[in-house]
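User: Fold this; tokens only.

Assistant: Input:
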Amino acid sequence: MLLSGQPKPLASTYLMSEDKLQSAVVKYIQYKYPNVKYCSSIAGAYISSRVQRAKIVRNGYVRGKNDLDIYEARGGYFALMLELKEKAYPTKEQKEWIEAMNQRGYCALITRGLNETIDVIDEYLSKERTRVV
């Protein structure tokens, strides 16, 4: 869903895994916006042992945390927070996280596929900087 609320059709029907999608999005940001600060949140996806999962939870991992944050205040928001999806659907916890971030002044969205994600990033970063007084 673009910031305007209108979905944009994908140019291709090729689907990639979500980790490849996230990697492609990060490479795009690095190439097109080299000065933008961002951070991904992928810890939970790669932890399979109960001991390691308990450790990351003790250290602050939260189920449902979105995949990618872009720390640029634009268009009246403080940051862009994206949950990247390809084939899967967002979990209840992911939907709740996105809702909570929107209530706190962030632009938090669930995007589907590379084309939509890039369109959302470009649209968000083209907006005027948010002034903090």
